[in-house]
Amino acid sequence: MHLEQPWLIADIGGTNARFALYRPASGFASPQVLPTSEHATLQAAAAHYLQQLGLTEPAVRPRYAAFGIANPITGDWVQMTNHSWQFSISELQSALGLGKLLMLNDFSALALALPHLQAAELQQVGGGVPVPHEAMALIGPGTGLGVSGLLPDGHGGWLALAGEGGHVTLAPFDAVERAVVDYVQARHPHVSAERLLCGGGAGQDMGLPLLHEAVCAVQAIPQQARTAAEITRLGVVGEDAACRLTVDLFCAMLGTMAANLVLSLGARGGCFIGGGIVPRLGSYFAQSPFRRRFEEKGRCSAYLQQVPTYVIHAEYPAFTGAAAALAQWLQTHRQT
Predict the structure, then answer these.
(1) Is 13 marked as binding a ligand?
(2) How many angstroms separate the most distant Cα atoms in the chain?
(3) Which positions does UniProt annotate for ATP binding (predicted)?
(4) Percentage of residues in the chain with pLDDT exceeding 90?
(5) Is 11 annotated as a binding residue?
(6) pLDDT surpasses 50 at 1
(7) CB crowding 292-330: b at 16 or more within 10 Å, else e
(8) Alpha-carbon gap, residue 294 to 256, rounded angstroms
(9) The pLDDT of residue 203 is above 80
(10) Residue 17 belongs to what H/E stretch?
(11) Mean pLDDT of the chain
């Protein structure tokens, strides 16, 4: 029955792979963050994690696992969008000696965690009150831009959306944003939301560094190459005008995207912001143009004023959602 063996839970992003063990009776244990650049494959990273804990022998290694990954899951073969890892789910399951490897989109996993988040793990930005049992929206800039939603299933539970909303076409709000998009479009004919609303990484021409470059070009500011970390740090404290303009524009455009998502889903249960970038902006984010832009929707402004927006500050929220998904799978398939 494998009751004594923990489940292996993972949250796989373009920059880091996070692992933990989970037992339904006692919760999570032994969380660890492994840089994806230090491991040639996901199998190697997972095996390294288990080896460190002495869980490689069949009698003690996990029998079941759930991995949330920053990628669409459309079949057995997975090729990461923002990293070089690629693999067969069934072959990975076999290589790790698992009876079941449940692979799901990382933001679907995070969406499933939303009903379980505690008040101390959330920072509300702006006004609004959540309507119980209504849809919830989820968006999060990290290495890429994750988008999901949580819908009531009509039986007291929830259904997480597995989409690729970060790749929708970015819609500029005003003349400055149109100029920025025009600048980027000269190199990238399709300017997706993720092209600018993320941290970027893995040597890709995207995210905050590209947005900073475009802002400097549009505002006729001398170019100085900056990393995403430098842009956010200098922008938040106001030490660099171009970085501050970039961070302000980033937050405003994120507000547009978040509002679009809420209107599309009818997410009166609230809009939640995950990912690695916004939580690091600290108290600045509440004063940024995000919430003002979120509410600037013409005839639907009053609607959006009633929808609360939250920044997720939980350390490993996607673990909770992945474990919930695996528990549901095991219950459905009558396994423990």
Answers:
(1) yes
(2) 66
(3) 10-15
(4) 88
(5) yes
(6) no
(7) ebbbbbeeeeeebeebbbbbbebebbbbbbbbbbbbeeb
(8) 6
(9) no
(10) strand 16-23
(11) 94
Residues whose CB is less than 8 angstroms from the CB of residue 41 and which lie 6 or more positions away in sequence, other chains included: 85, 87
Residue 10 labeled ligand binder: yes
DSSP secondary structure, 143-175, as one string: SSEEEEEEEE-SSS-EEE----GGGSBP---SH
- How far is the C-alpha of 255 from the C-alpha of 34, rounded, in Å? 31
Tokens of 166: 């970060």
Q: How far is CA 160 from CA 7, 76, 94, 107, 110, in A?
A: 21, 20, 27, 9, 9
| Range 182-191 contact pairs with CB under 8 angstroms and sequence separation of 24 or more | 183/214, 183/217, 183/218, 184/210, 184/214
User: What's the CA gap between 252 and 246, in Å, rounded?
Assistant: 10
**56 assigned ligand-binding residue:** no
CB 268 within 8 A of CB 134: yes
Q: Which residue has the tokens 């992003």?
A: 13
How sure is the predictor about 3, in pLDDT bands with cuts at 50, 70 and 90?
low
Both tokens of 96, joined, read: 């790790």
Say what angle helices 175-185 and 207-218 make with each other, to 10 degrees: 110
Q: What is the pLDDT of residue 184?
A: 98
Query: Strand, coil or helix: what is 204?
Result: coil
DSSP H/E element including 250: helix 241-265
Structure tokens, 42: 């996901």
- SS3 state at 140: strand
Domains of the chain as residue ranges with CATH: 7-111+316-332 (3.30.420.40), 118-313 (3.40.367.20)
Look up residue 24 and give its two tokens: 């339904």
273 labelled binding-site residue:
no
Percentage of the residues of the chain whose pLDDT score is greater than 70: 98
- 106 known ligand binder: no
